[in-house]
Amino acid sequence: MNTTQPTEQDGATVANQYDHTPSVEVGMLIRLEMTAKKKTRAALAEHLGVSTSSLSRRFMDQQVWDINELADIARFLGTPLTMLCPDRLAFLSDGPADDATEES
To answer: Are 36 and 29 in contact (CB under 8 A)?
Structure first.
């Protein structure tokens, strides 16, 4: 089994193979959306009015994402805010998470 952490160039990262904070998972989803929309980090940083190093700190989980920032990022990407929610990762990897369904 490969224990090497994936790099940013590994577009097929399956999030649930590793332990991540919700902030890291949000960053993964933002990167996925940015790749799909062909947006750069520099363009996102400019849109948010922050430096690229400040943005990098968020992607590296050294600074958490702010909900207002996430709403602005969703607008920048032209995507619903829910597309940047960590629960979405379960659907990208294996389908619905076991705890996503509730019994009546």
So the answer is: no
Per the structure, the complete domain to which residue 37 belongs is given by 20-83
Residue 42 CA to residue 86 CA, distance in Å, equals 23
From CA 13, how far away is CA 26, in angstroms rounded?
13
Q: Model confidence over 52-96: pLDDT tens digits?
A: 999 999 998 899 898 999 999 999 999 999 888 877 656 555 554
Q: Is residue 39 part of a domain?
A: yes
Q: What is the CATH number of the domain that holds 56?
A: 1.10.260.40
Q: How far apart are CA 62 and CA 36, in angstroms?
A: 25
